[in-house]
Specification:
binds zinc ion; mainly alpha; 2 domains; 265 residues
């Protein structure tokens, strides 16, 4: 798609606004609070936030990360997710062949971002999120680069084949090494990326996980208090965030270790 500078600015603003919505969704999901109704409030003093407190990124910088009324620190998660969403929106616009595919891919990445943060915080992936991801991936798979296509056998098998190793790990470890949820996230990632990039994303997820695990062990060995208390709280490390990171690297940076293997086309 031919995109000018002004469309990129609009895409960045749109991404930041959706990121702000995603923050509200992450905060309110499963709490009984309505996402559509009810104004946002400061979690400490309960003061209703005005329009000027809710501008993505800008408000956080303007308020220097503190509530206007009580001075409580606002989580860095808010501007971080808004910034990432803005960046992803621009990157998606630059890679999508049609406006419809931009919308579909952007929704897909936002669902993945939701899964990443939610799994980090709660060690579980909501079924509504993995269901949305699966539906989006199938629509993208059958839409091809703009018009309806019947995907080839390898494109259809990419999902199950990429997810198979994760399902086997959770099966043989009785769900201890890995939950079912990780395979259920990998399935649509395989459809979205194809077999060779999907397998690359899976490999990168394991590497990122291994490097992070080693770093955590090192920090624990060195006796860093914050890390130690966090590790004893739960030795479980969620895997879906690594899958999302691996998929992001494979998709946006075109990292593909197996593209030279003819079988995989
Ligand atoms: Zn406050």
């Amino acid at each position: 798609m031919e995109v000018g500078a002004s469309s990129l600015i609009v895409a960045a603003l749109f991404g930041a606004i959706i990121g702000s919505f995603l923050n509200a969704l992450l905060y309110r999901f499963n709490t009984g609070l309505s996402i559509a109704r009810g104004r946002s409030r400061c979690m400490r003093c309960g003061h209703t936030l005005t329009f000027f407190d809710l501008m993505p990124i800008i408000s956080y910088l303007g308020l220097r990360g503190r509530c206007r009324h009580c001075g409580t620190r606002i989580s860095i998660q808010y501007p971080l997710i808004e910034g990432i969403a803005a960046l992803v929106s621009v990157a998606t616009l630059l890679t999508a062949p049609t406006p419809l595919l931009y919308v579909l891919w952007f929704c897909t990445w936002m669902t993945l971002l939701f899964i990443l943060v939610y799994d980090l915080r709660h060690m579980v992936i909501p079924w509504s999120a993995s269901g949305t991801l699966a539906a989006l991936s199938l629509v993208i798979l059958f839409l091809g680069s703009g018009s309806f296509v019947i995907p080839g056998i390898w494109a259809l098998m990419a999902g199950p084949l990429c997810a198979l190793p994760l399902f086997l790990i959770s099966l043989f470890s009785g769900g201890r090494a890995m939950g079912w949820g990780d395979g259920i996230v990998m399935l649509p990632l395989g459809w979205l990326l194809g077999l060779s990039a999907g397998a690359s994303a899976l490999m990168m997820a394991f590497w990122i996980g291994a490097i992070l695990g080693l770093l955590l062990m090192l920090f624990q060995f060195l006796g860093w208090k914050g890390v130690r208390s966090r590790l004893t709280m739960s030795s479980e490390i969620p895997f879906a965030p690594f899958l999302v990171l691996g998929a992001g690297i494979a998709y946006f940076l075109h990292v593909d270790f197996f593209s030279n293997l003819p079988l995989l086309f």
